[in-house]
């Protein structure tokens, strides 16, 4: 389901860096493999086995990926083809444009794990959709479908 572990985050970070430096690339489109998930968020089983230092490295790498997407000097597009949860939603929020399939579901369910979104999602979500809606999603872990996400300004279409 395109869950994020250290290996996948490292590969994503490296590829984003390559694309940022590639003068021939005019736009970056981020999407998930298959149609079930854009990025389903953290690999929970993987995360539960991390030491404090490993967790810090993993979190820093996710934050760096989101920052690369947000600051890239070419347009970034999230093509959301299923679940965009937790870190996946945060990566989508960091893109310039977000397009969701009708089957997409987005949210910040970290509260259900006793953690908070750590890759800038709280700030980006509040700026994009308003503080009240951002708090609702972050504090309840509620997921939204593509229709509501578009209505609330979370996705462009």
Keywords:
3-stranded parallel sheet; 2-enoyl-CoA Hydratase, Chain A, domain 1; 9 strands; 157 residues; 4-stranded mixed sheet; alpha/beta; globular
What gross morphology would you assign?
A: globular
Briefly, what CATH class?
Alpha Beta
Residue share in helix: 40-55%
Largest sheet: 4 strands, mixed
Number of strands: 9
Number of helices: 7
Order of helices and strands: EHEEEHHEEHEEHHEH
Mean pLDDT: 95
Tell me the β content: 15-25%
Q: In angstroms, what separates the terminal alpha carbons?
A: 23 Å
List the domain count as a whole number: 1
Task: Give a brief description.
By secondary structure, the protein is of the alpha/beta class. Helices cover about 45% and strands about 20% of the residues.
In words, what does this structure look like?
- It contains seven helices and nine strands; from the N terminus they run E-H-E-E-E-H-H-E-E-H-E-E-H-H-E-H.
- The protein has one domain: 2-enoyl-CoA Hydratase, Chain A, domain 1 (Alpha-Beta Complex), CATH 3.90.226.10.
- Helix content is 47%, strand content 18%.
- The protein is globular.
- With 157 residues, the chain is of the alpha/beta class.
- Helix 1 runs parallel beside helix 3, helix 3 packs parallel to helix 4 and helix 4 crosses helix 5.
What topology does this entry show?
Elements: E1 3-4, H1 6-21, E2 28-31, E3 37-39, E4 41-42, H2 44-48, H3 52-71, E5 76-80, E6 83-85, H4 87-94, E7 97-100, E8 105-107, H5 121-129, H6 131-140, E9 143-145, H7 146-151
Parallel strand pairs: 1-4, 2-5, 3-6, 5-7, 6-8
Antiparallel strand pairs: 8-9
């Amino acid at each position: 389901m395109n869950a994020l572990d250290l290996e996948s985050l490292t590969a994503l970070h490296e590829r984003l860096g390559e694309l940022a430096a590639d003068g021939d690339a005019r736009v970056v489109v981020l999407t998930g493999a298959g149609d079930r998930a854009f990025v389903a968020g953290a690999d929970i089983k993987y995360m539960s086995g991390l030491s404090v230092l490993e967790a810090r490295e993993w979190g820093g790498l996710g934050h760096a990926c989101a920052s690369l997407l947000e600051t890239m000097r070419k347009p970034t597009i999230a093509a959301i083809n299923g679940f965009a949860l937790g870190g996946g939603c945060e990566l989508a929020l960091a893109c310039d444009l977000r397009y969701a399939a009708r089957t997409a579901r987005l949210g910040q369910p970290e509260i259900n794990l006793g953690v908070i979104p750590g890759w800038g999602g709280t700030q980006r979500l509040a700026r994009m959709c308003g503080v009240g809606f951002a708090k609702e999603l972050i504090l309840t872990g509620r997921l939204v479908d593509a229709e509501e996400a578009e209505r609330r300004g979370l996705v462009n279409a």
